[in-house]
Hints:
By secondary structure, the chain is α/β, with parallel strands linked by helices.
Amino acid sequence: MSTNKLKVAVIGLGNIGKVVATNLVKGNREVILASSKLEDANALAQQLGGLAKAVEVSAAIKEADIVVLAVWFSTMQELFKQYATELQGKLIVDPSNPIAPDGNGGFKKIIGADESAGQIISELLPKGAKLAKALGTLGAASLASAAFQKPEAAVQFFATDDNTINTTIEELIKDNGFEPVRIGGINQSIRIEVFGDLHEFGALGKTITRKEFKQPV
Length: 217
Ligand SMILES: NC(=O)c1ccc[n+]([C@@H]2O[C@H](COP(=O)([O-])OP(=O)(O)OC[C@H]3O[C@@H](n4cnc5c(N)ncnc54)[C@H](OP(=O)(O)O)[C@@H]3O)[C@@H](O)[C@H]2O)c1
């Protein structure tokens, strides 16, 4: 273990969690791994090498400063209840999209058209926890393939109401191999969730670089 940056845990090691953990290790960042099954976390830790370690969910949250909840929107709400004590005061990173299969091979939104997962999650936060909506603006495939892109990094948008964590989130996104761009507070979260104008599976439709992003932020 080699860095003195804030400690990151990735909870949930499916499509997104695996890529986030892998990117962080590529970015020379230590990562604590946990999922519903310890053996999944152990297997990934073994694959990723010395910067990664696997523990149970509760221990991962306790040890980390930053907790990336790479789980489904509904699971996140369950985890808030189950680990309310451990999550107190933590910086929670939420990549979730409020979607479910639509039965026709696509996805449908499971909350109101004008609602965002970010805003709903922000109202359920454990005591003293801080929230950043981040690391969910691209599909898992692009999150892997566009990481550490050269010569210009691809953008990852984020939103937070807490300006004191901007630099920490920017560093986390850079260590994932992307250029961070804050688009505003959590009330802007809908723009960077699936179907939003700044999501790969929304109006944006692709990865872009900072130069290609023309809007003021
Ligand atoms: N996939 C994408 O391209 C994409 C893009 C952007 C954002 N997102 C968002 O990212 C989140 C994760 O998506 P995903 O595609 O990575 O889902 P996924 O492949 O189903 O992964 C979810 C992970 O969470 C774990 N998990 C479930 N319940 C848990 C619990 N109680 N405690 C700890 N871990 C638990 C699962 O473990 P088990 O398999 O053992 O149940 C699995 O490893 C979702 O909110 C999604 O909307 C996904």
